[in-house]
Amino acid sequence: MSNEKILVVEDEKEIAQMIRDYLKASNYDVILAYDGEEALNTFYRENPDLVILDIMLPKIDGFEICRTIRTKSPVPILMLSARKEDMDKILGLGLGADDYVTKPFSPRELLARVQSQLRRYKELSTTQTPSSALVIGELEIDPSAYTVKVRGNYVPFSVKEFEILYYLASNLNQALAREKIFDHVWGFNEYGDINTVTVHVRKIREKIEEDPSNPKYIETVWGIGYKFKGGK
């Protein structure tokens, strides 16, 4: 039985092949790319279900690849790096990565992250029906298609950005603690930081708000977290 297709982008061939062998043993289809240019060409050609993406790559680095993929697709992206500073940069730039793993890592941990990302993505994109789309103000949030329209135009969202937006909008006018949002979206991630929620909310505001500094949708509830309003 053929399972989901995973693109592994890693210039260290031994690591790439180790990841491939471990994932294939769990019945995933795996494609390898060893530089950034090959990665993007392979992504467009193969349309994978998940991308495992190293940061330090020849030709085009992982940050730029992540940014490019995210403008085209909400597919889960799991980033790899040997440096903690790179993880901070991922969060700070809000590039749209859904998870990250620092090297060295255990194949078992990586597999658990992959399985969790695919499961959550599949659940959100297949268990909803078109009638479950939320229309609030000038926003249309459709979990069946995993799309967001802002003032009639489609705007690309990462998986995590979409999950946060949909969770907030589904709890209209309710103050939700950052910890609660984090648990709902990143509950499996033992290395997580609730500041990730703040970074993602900032990116969401940039996409949906006409004036992110004076938001009409996502209101900050000081000392607690955020509340989604009706956009009036």
UniProtKB/TrEMBL annotation:
Identification of the protein by name: Stage 0 sporulation protein A homolog
Source species, domain of life: Bacteria
Residues modified to 4-aspartylphosphate: 54
Domain Response regulatory: 5-118
Signal peptide: none
UniProt cross-references to SMART domains, sorted A to Z: REC (SM00448), Trans_reg_C (SM00862)
One cellular component term from this protein's GO annotations in UniProt: protein-DNA complex
Pfam families: Response_reg, Trans_reg_C
